[in-house]
Amino acid sequence: MDAKKPKVEPMKNDQRFNEAIQNIDAANSEDPRTEMVEGKARPRELQFTKRVYEWIQQLVDDPSEELLIAARAHTLRRWNIPRDTYPKTTVGYHQWRDALAQFHAKEAESILQSVGYSEESIEKIKALIIRENWPQDDEACALEDADCLVFLETKLRNYIDDWGQDKTIHILQRTLKKMTPNARAHAVQLSLDNIVRAILQRAVEIAKV
C-alpha cells in the first residue's frame, strides 16, 4: 500500500491495556507455525494480529480500547483448533469458523479478567471477536475490513495454486462484498504481485462493488 501505516504501539498511558496486549501477544507467540519476516522466523498468528492492529489504526480515526484489543485477540491461539478437525465441506468450514470464534473469545476473556477489565468491556470485546453485531456495528465492520485486508496482503497468494483461478475469484467476490467501500478502496491499492493483482481486479469487476 502506498500510504505509510502507523507504528504499532500500545497506549503507553494505560497500564492495564499494555498488560492485556502483552499477555495476548505472549499467548500468540506460542504459535508453532512460523513465517519469515525480514529473514527471521516469527510466530504466524502474532504477525497476523499485529498487521490487523495496524490496519485498525489506519481505518479508524479514534479506535476504542476494546476494538484495539479485539484486533490483537480475535485469532488468539488459532492453531489449537486445526481446520482438519472438521469435515472438508462448506458446512464443516462454517462449523470450524464458529468454533474458532467462540474459542478466541473465551481465551481473550480469561486474559482480560486476569488484568482487571470490567465485564462490560469484556463482553464488548467478545462481541467484536465473534462478529456478533456485524455488519450493523461500525467497529465490527472495521475489524472485518482489517482482517480481509491482511488476508489479501499476506495469505491470498498462497491459496491461488490450490484453489485455481475460478474458485479464487469466486471467494474474492464474497470477501469484497463483506468489506466497506473504504476498505475496498484500500484493497485495490495494495502492493501485490501481478498474478494476485490481476485476480483481485477481475473479482472487483465481476462483483461490481
Would you mind describing this structure in some detail?
The chain is 65% helix and 4% strand. It has 9 helices and 2 strands. It has helices at 15-28, 44-59, 65-73, 90-114, 119-129, 138-163, 165-178, 181-187, 194-207, and strands at 34-37, 40-43. Strands 1-2 form a two-stranded antiparallel sheet. Mean pLDDT is 93; it is low at 1-8.
Gross morphology: globular
Radius of gyration: 17 Å
Question: What's the story with the biggest beta sheet?
Answer: 2 strands, antiparallel
Strand content: under 5%
Number of strands: 2
N-to-C SSE series?
Answer: HEEHHHHHHHH
The main sheet orders its strands as 1-2
N-to-C CA distance: 20 Å
> What ranges have pLDDT less than 50 throughout 5 or more consecutive residues?
1-8
Q: Specify the number of helices.
A: 9
Helix content: 55-70%
Helix-strand makeup class: mainly alpha
Overall pLDDT metric: 93
As for the number of domains, it is 2
